[in-house]
């Protein structure tokens, strides 16, 4: 039954969605360049783009490995310190997390009957569990904070002795570079351009979520606003600690379409499978092409920061 629905889908809409996915990745690379350039390093758009896509490919295998992978390969290609690049990625991800939380808040606030009830039903048991175990949770957090404060105090008290160890200088240099990367979002000159790229990225994300809904007659009537709703909810599945959001994405998207919009379970399931598979195949193929392209460019071009 599921295979029948998969075969009858109109894949032209998925192809259009992939185009917007490509454009969103280009915008992400251009935005990353702003952070890198604010540290005084030179970058090329296409090498940054290839690095971003290599990172997406790595994420399909190991969750969050992509952030490390794209920094590692760009560091090698353009001779930029890895720790500085990783700091920019942390800054970028924190900013995107804020945007995602803002989108989820607005979606729930303006459509509390539709989306709020769904999220409450799905995540209500989790929050109930947190509430029931509040004492254990608070105690654990306090122990972690206490351990952190104690570690900082010991390092301060014995800093002169610690400085004598060889690892101190290397560790300090690493975290200094990391911090320089993290604070780039605050010190860069073209902040409005950074915000513009961010808006473009998330608009394209919404479009590439909405367009595949046109693949089926049962979901074709859903509006762009419904696409934004789906983006907000499906993002919770993508950020789950599983490779590429496999499983978590499918469950939450199918359940959302079925319970909120009354879409047939088989159609909802096939939509989730096709959309996720399409984006995953695109990321893997383009990531592989990007990896070999960077290898080719490394032979033809000198590093930008030589």
Features:
306 residues; mainly alpha
Structural class by SSE content: mainly alpha
Helicity level, as a percent range?
over 70%
Order of helices and strands: HHHHHHHHHHHHHH
Nearest-integer average pLDDT: 81
Gyration radius from CA atoms, angstroms: 22 Å
Distance between the termini: 58 Å
Shape: globular
Instruction: Please count the helical segments.
Output: 14
| Unreliable runs | 124-128
Multimeric status of the protein = single chain
Question: What is the strand content?
Answer: under 5%
Number of domains: 1
Total strands: 0
Main beta sheet: none
Helix-strand layout with pairing:
Layout: H1 2-8, H2 12-37, H3 45-59, H4 65-78, H5 82-110, H6 112-132, H7 134-157, H8 159-162, H9 166-182, H10 184-187, H11 191-210, H12 224-238, H13 248-261, H14 265-300
Helix pairs in contact: 1-14, 2-3, 2-11, 3-4, 3-14, 4-5, 5-6, 5-9, 5-12, 11-12, 12-13, 13-14
Descriptive report:
The chain is an all-alpha fold and 306 residues long. The protein has one domain. 80% of the residues lie in helices and 0% in strands. α4 crosses α5. The longest helix is centred in the last third of the chain and has 36 residues. The radius of gyration is 22 Å and the shape is globular. The protein starts with a helix and ends in a 6-residue tail after the last helix.
């Amino acid at each position: 039954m599921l295979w029948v629905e998969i075969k009858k889908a109109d894949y032209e809409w998925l192809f259009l969605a992939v185009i917007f996915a490509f454009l969103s990745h280009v915008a992400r690379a251009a935005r990353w360049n702003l952070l890198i350039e604010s540290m005084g390093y030179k970058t090329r758009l296409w090498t940054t783009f290839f690095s971003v896509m290599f990172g997406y490919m790595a994420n399909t295998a190991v969750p969050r490995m992509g952030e490390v992978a794209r920094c590692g390969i760009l560091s090698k290609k353009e001779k930029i310190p890895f720790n500085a690049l990783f700091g920019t990625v942390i800054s970028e991800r924190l900013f995107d997390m804020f945007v995602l939380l803002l989108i989820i808040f607005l979606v729930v606030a303006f459509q509390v009957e539709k989306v709020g009830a769904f999220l409450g039903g799905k995540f209500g048991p989790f929050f109930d569990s947190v509430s029931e175990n509040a004492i254990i949770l608070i105690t654990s957090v306090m122990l972690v904070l206490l351990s952190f404060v104690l570690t900082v105090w010991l390092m301060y008290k014995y800093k002169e002795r610690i400085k004598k160890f060889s690892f101190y200088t290397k560790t300090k240099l690493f975290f200094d570079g990391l911090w320089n990367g993290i604070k780039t979002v605050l010190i860069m000159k073209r902040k409005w351009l950074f915000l513009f790229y961010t808006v473009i990225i998330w608009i394209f994300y919404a479009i590439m979520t909405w367009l595949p809904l046109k693949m089926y007659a049962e979901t074709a009537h859903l509006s762009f606003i419904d696409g934004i709703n789906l983006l907000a909810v499906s993002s919770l599945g993508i950020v789950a600690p599983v490779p590429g959001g496999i499983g978590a994405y499918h469950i939450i998207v199918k359940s959302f379409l079925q319970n909120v919009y009354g879409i047939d379970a088989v159609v909802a399931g096939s939509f989730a499978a096709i959309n996720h598979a399409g984006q995953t195949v695109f990321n893997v193929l383009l990531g592989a092409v990007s990896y070999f392209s960077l290898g080719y460019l490394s032979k033809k071009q000198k590093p930008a920061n030589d």
